[in-house]
Design a protein that fits this description.
33% helix; 15 strands; Peroxisomal Thiolase, Chain A, domain 1; alpha/beta
C-alpha cells in the first residue's frame, strides 16, 4: 500500500456511560463496571439507559449549550479531547485542511419532541416555537457544531448509517485523507438517543426494550435471558492522519486502519442477515490483505435482541470458526449507543494493543446455544498475551453493515 494511503489513529476523545476518557473507559471495562442506570423519560414508566456524565462546560459556555444540541455537545467534548490527546499544535493547524466526519443514527428528534411538547402547553401557538429549531435539527448539526466551536473551515459531514454509523464515520475520514481532501480527519460517531422518548417507545412496541430489576444486568448479549436493547448515549471520536504526517510530527500512534467494508442486506427493514454480515467481514479482510487467522480479537455488534444475536453469531462462526480469534461485546457494559456504538466499541478494545487483554462480555450467565461461540470472552477479561489486529462489527436497521479492521502500528 502506498505510504500516503496508510491511515493511523493519533488522538482519542470519548464519553461513554462508564467513562469520559480512554483510560477511564478501559479501566471500567476491565473491572466489569457497567454504566447502565434507571432513567426517566416522558410519557413512559421508568426505563433503563446508558447515561453519560461528561462536563458540557469544559469546551462550551452555558449559552452555547442552550443554543445547541446534546449531540453537538457530545461531539464538541469528544473532538476537543481527541485534539488534546493527539497533542496537535492546534493554533498552528491549517483549519481549512481539517475535516469533520461523524456517524449518526438519527438527528433532530430530541428538539422536535421537546418543542412540540412545549408548544402543546400554549395551545400550539407558534410564537413559542424556537427560532433555533432549524439549525438544531438539520442532519449535519453535530459535525457543524464542532466546526463552529473549533474554527474549522474544511468540510464537515454527518454520515447517517443507523447503528453502523460509528464505523462509517471512520471510513469517511479515511477516504477523505486518501483523496487528499484534508490533512486531518476528526472522525467517529455520536448519539443523543436517550433524550428522545420516541426511541424507547418504538423499541417497547417491538418488544425489544430491555428490562431487569438490576440495571447493570439488563444488557446481556448472547445470553438466554436477554430481553432487548438498553438505549445509550455517547460519543467516540478520533484524530486520523496519513502515516507520514503523523511520523513527521512525532505523534503517538494508537493503531492503523488496515481494512474496511460496508454493504447492504437488501432483505428486511429490521431483521439482520448473517450471510451479508459474513460477506462484509470477508471484504474487510480482503482489503486489509489478511485472513481470518490473522485476527486476534473480534468486537461484536450484538445488541441483546434474540434474532440479532443469533444472526451475528452465525456469521462469526462462518468466518472465524476454527480460528484463535476471541469475541467480546462492549454493549453489555454501556448499552447500545446507536450512532456512537461502533466507535465506542472499537475504542474500548484499542488498548488491547498495549495491555494484551480482551475485556469481557458481562451478564452471560446462561449462554444461548443458538449463539454458541467457542471463543466468547464471558464475564472475566482474558489475557491474550499479544494483540496485533482487531475486527470491529457494526450493523444497523435497513440492513446496513460496516466492518473496520485496525492493526497495532509497528515500524
Amino acid at each position: 500500500m502506498p505510504v500516503n494511503d496508510r491511515i493511523v489513529i493519533t488522538g482519542i476523545g470519548l464519553t461513554a456511560p462508564n467513562g469520559n476518557s480512554l483510560n477511564e473507559f478501559r479501566r471500567n471495562l476491565l473491572s466489569g463496571r457497567s454504566g447502565v442506570v434507571n432513567y426517566e423519560t416522558r410519557y413512559m414508566p421508568p426505563v433503563l439507559a446508558g447515561v453519560c456524565n461528561f462536563d458540557e462546560l469544559r469546551y462550551q459556555s452555558r449559552r452555547e449549550v442552550r443554543r445547541g444540541t446534546r449531540a453537538g455537545s457530545v461531539a464538541i467534548y469528544c473532538s476537543n479531547e481527541a485534539i488534546r490527546h493527539a497533542e496537535l499544535d492546534w493554533d498552528n493547524v491549517e483549519k481549512c485542511r481539517v475535516g469533520v466526519y461523524l456517524g449518526i443514527t438519527e438527528h433532530g428528534n430530541v428538539e422536535t419532541e421537546n418543542e412540540i411538547y412545549e408548544i402543546s402547553q400554549f395551545e400550539y401557538d407558534t410564537k413559542v416555537w424556537s427560532h433555533h429549531h432549524n439549525p438544531r435539527t438539520v442532519a449535519n448539526n453535530p459535525a457543524g457544531e464542532v466546526t463552529l466551536n473549533l474554527g474549522i473551515t474544511g468540510p464537515h459531514l454527518t454520515v447517517g448509517a443507523a447503528c453502523a454509523a460509528g464505523n462509517a464515520g471512520f471510513i469517511q475520514g479515511l477516504q477523505m485523507l486518501r483523496l487528499n481532501e484534508v490533512d486531518i480527519a476528526i472522525a467517529g460517531g455520536v448519539s443523543e438517543s436517550i433524550h428522545t422518548f420516541g426511541i424507547f417507545a418504538s423499541f417497547q412496541s417491538q418488544g425489544a426494550l430491555a428490562t431487569h430489576e438490576d440495571p447493570t444486568q439488563a444488557s446481556r448479549p448472547f445470553d438466554n435471558a436477554r430481553n432487548g436493547i438498553v438505549v445509550a448515549e455517547g460519543g467516540g471520536i478520533c484524530i486520523l492522519e496519513r502515516l507520514p504526517d503523523a511520523l513527521k510530527r512525532g505523534a503517538t500512534i494508537y493503531g492503523e486502519i488496515i481494512g474496511h467494508a460496508m454493504n447492504s442486506d437488501a432483505s428486511d427493514f429490521v431483521l439482520p442477515n448473517s450471510e451479508r454480515q459474513a460477506e462484509c467481514m470477508r471484504l474487510a479482510l480482503s482489503r486489509a490483505g489478511i485472513t481470518q487467522h490473522d485476527v486476534d480479537l473480534v468486537s461484536s455488534h450484538a445488541t441483546a435482541t434474540e434474532q440479532g444475536d443469533i444472526e451475528e453469531a452465525t456469521a462469526l462462526r462462518e468466518v472465524f470458526g476454527g480460528t484463535n480469534a476471541v469475541v467480546n461485546n462492549t454493549k453489555s457494559f454501556i448499552g447500545h449507543a446507536m450512532g456512537a456504538a461502533g466507535a465506542l466499541e472499537l475504542l474500548g478494545n484499542l488498548s488491547s494493543f498495549d495491555d494484551g487483554m480482551a475485556h469481557a462480555t458481562i451478564n452471560v450467565d446462561s449462554p444461548d446455544p443458538r449463539c454458541e461461540l467457542d471463543q466468547l470472552v464471558a464475564n472475566q477479561p482474558r489475557d491474550l498475551g499479544k494483540v496485533r489486529s482487531i475486527l470491529n462489527n457494526s450493523f444497523g436497521m435497513l440492513g446496513i453493515n460496516s466492518v473496520l479492521i485496525v492493526q497495532k502500528y509497528e515500524d
